[in-house]
Amino acid sequence: MSGGVSAEHRLGDPAIKAGLRNERLALRNALLPVERAEKSLAIASHGTGALTFAKGAVISGFLPIRSEADIRPLIALLADRGARLCLPAILDKETIVFREQVSDAELVAGTFGTVAPGPDAAELDPEIMLVPLAAFDGRGHRIGYGGGYYDRAIHRLHQKGLNPLLVGIAFDCQEVASVPEEPHDIRLDAVLTESGYRSFAGEASA
Predict the structure, then answer these.
(1) How far apart are CA 71 and CA 96, in angstroms?
(2) Which residues bind ATP (predicted)?
(3) Is residue 21 part of an annotated ligand binding site?
(4) Which of 1, 39, 75, 190 could crosslink 61 through cysteines, CB 3.0-4.6 Å?
């Protein structure tokens, strides 16, 4: 679904991006709870087979808010395979960090309806990041929720010389023909939906 990209589209017109975000979130919201549950289990099944990592590798997940895919079954399967799990914790209007998720540790409420491990939990640098999103295209570009938290977190990891595998998590209905690009945007390496795992390796970024 890549198609051509106009010069205006490449500049990342905020109105276009906002329209695509609202449109795809409306489609996601329209999924019945039972549909979301079934699709989330399919995501877990595809993901556990597609993601390869060494025992002890740090993987960041997220707990679902609103109508997001529920990847708790997936991260449980990854933990069974030896992954060290962490979840995003919002520190302020600019920053998220990734805190280790331990099975018996209490989660604390954060902003935007999120919950995460508390400040006593270890902060980790993910090697694989499961990234929530509002929309994505066939070139690996994503539209987030507008806060830029993940873009900044990934940029900080890059500044530390780290290059985590970025896997977008979405339902098929969230795919669009083309996402407007902005200078701060970072392409996904792959996307995981109920249809399977799709790598963007070799896809043109323009």
Answers:
(1) 19
(2) 17-21, 142-150
(3) yes
(4) 75
